[in-house]
Amino acid sequence: MCDTSDSDHDHSHEHSAGQHCCSLGEDYERNLAEQRKHQVTRRDVLRAVGASGLLIASGTINAGSVFAADTPAGAAEQPTRLYSPLGAGEFDGFYYLSGDHHIHTRYSSDAKYAVQRQVAEANHHGLGWMVITDHGSGAHNKISVDLTYPDIQQARDVFKNMLVFVGLEMNIPGAEHGTVMLEPNAQEKDQIKQFEAAYDGRIAPNTEEQAIAGLKFLDGYSPKPLFFANHPARNGLDSPHEIRNWKAAAPEIAVGFEGAPGHQAAGLIRDQDGKFVAYRGFYGNKPEATSWPGYPLESYFTYGGFDWMTAKLGGLWDSLLGDGMRWWITANSDSHKYFNDLQDVDNTQFDAQGYVSEVDKYFQRPTYGDFRPGEYSRTYVIADQATHAGVMEALRAGHSFVVLGDLIDRLKFVIATTDGHGQHAGDTTTAGMGDTLTVKPGGTVHVTMSVRVPATPNWFNQRPMVDHIDLIGGDVTHPSQTAGADTFTNPSTRVLATYSRGRWKTKESAEGLVLTMTYTLHNIQQDGYLRLRGTNTHDRSATPPMDPDMRGQTGTAQSPWDDLWFYSNPVFIRVVP
């Protein structure tokens, strides 16, 4: 299946030790032809390469249904969402589809790969959905969108089980970058062009007010699009009040930000003298004139590969959740140019032709810091149906979790109470990620957490093991119901319990090792939320350690494959008399 001699396969010590082939290389066009000729599906590909993170549903695979989690033979293709933490089977009833909402192609002036190449790579690495998000600009709007769309249609035709979305990485007016993703419809190409022309910050007025207007404009589309802020702390541009204003302006459109940014291999880039030249995620920056002045210097760095806004215990994400805001995190590749791909590109004609061209030139000094789609970062949605609409619904609702390096491939996080507002005395009410459990004052909440460590190795040819898992809780006090607050802390956030070997139940299967934990909260009086994180590292700090800054130094960098994390999205508790 894999040609280890491909020209852009990495051979550096930090990145390739123990690694099997991670790419289709220059054979991706042949891969497309073979897919069409033999009608090979992602099911066949995964059987052949053993990609972790997906278990295939029983029955026939067709264009509308792909992977399900522990779905018994004969089960319905569109299961009903029903949480049953005490039932048999930890992950039954839903489709677990991993994906990436931040992927670039040669239709971005700083990227290089064809749409078909990126879709083939995502397919090869076991993703179920992906979004093409080339950079907004005048040339992109006038030329590139019209060139991109036929390529996306071709990819949808070839990879019938890959859910490919039309999207845009917009320059958020007054802020950073953001993903806009559209559910497929007859007007999707025209919709993205119309929005970009009127509201991208490189074309339209670059003001906070324009960003709000743009989100309200998207709210008028049908089906409703989604918006995620990308690498939000990288340059300090996304202020707390802007994020709150985005959500208030279009609560069904603005739904989250990248918890773990892309460019995760950037910290491994060396110059010709062997010195490191970049920081993980291309973070490690300093405040600029347009940066929000309230952020501390520590916010410009990553922590276990995660953005400070997410990783900081009691930080900005917890502050938003403490407002009661339904704000979700994602993880993706931001794939522009694969790590140690030595072939250069010519972008001098981008404004005239709308795309970049590869040129016959090889660097002695690699400058690229990206993994391929699905190679390292995944956002898992837990969907009722394996369709574009099902993915959009799950992302909008927060039925999702994020993983680096295939540390886990399943997560079930459910809370339940018999002290709720059921129809009959003793009714058990349950809620999962993104949902809200209603409890009477003084009630008891039972928490059930299950994760699965996949049996197959990750794309570094390792099977990492979870060292510990933290259950985190915080109060919801609704302090910022009026948009505009710049609060970015939540002092109530704390680690409620830490689970490691001996504190979880284990069950081995052919698909992986299942770890199950329970916790009980008594006498609930305050609205709150719960979330999970876990890692293969041994550090038990409340906030994960800042990733080391090796820029200007030689030696051995910390490999991103040795520093893996997963984070859940939260589940909320609402106290109602």
Describe, in plain words, how this protein is organized in 3D:
With 577 residues, the protein is of the alpha+beta class. It has one domain: TIM Barrel (Alpha-Beta Barrel). It is 19% helix and 25% strand. The protein contains 12 helices and 24 strands. It has a 15-stranded mixed β-sheet that branches. The protein has a 5-stranded antiparallel β-sheet with strand order 15-14-17-21-20, with no helix packed on it. A two-stranded antiparallel sheet has the order 7-8. Helix 7 (208-218) runs parallel beside helix 8 (240-249). The longest helix has 21 residues, at 138-158.
Please tally the helical runs, counting DSSP H or I stretches of 4 or more residues: 12
Question: Pairing-aware structural class of the strands and helices?
Answer: alpha+beta
Number of domains: 1
Q: Termini distance?
A: 60 Å
Strand composition percent? 25-35%
CATH architecture call: Alpha-Beta Barrel
What overall geometry do the principal axes of the alpha carbons give? globular
Note the main sheet.
15 strands, mixed
Radius of gyration: 23 Å
Tell me, rounded to a whole number, the average pLDDT.
85
Helix content: 10-25%
Poorly predicted parts: 1-21, 36-88
Please report the total strand number as a whole number.
24
CATH class: Alpha Beta
Tell me the CATH topology. Answer: TIM Barrel
CATH superfamily: Metal-dependent hydrolases
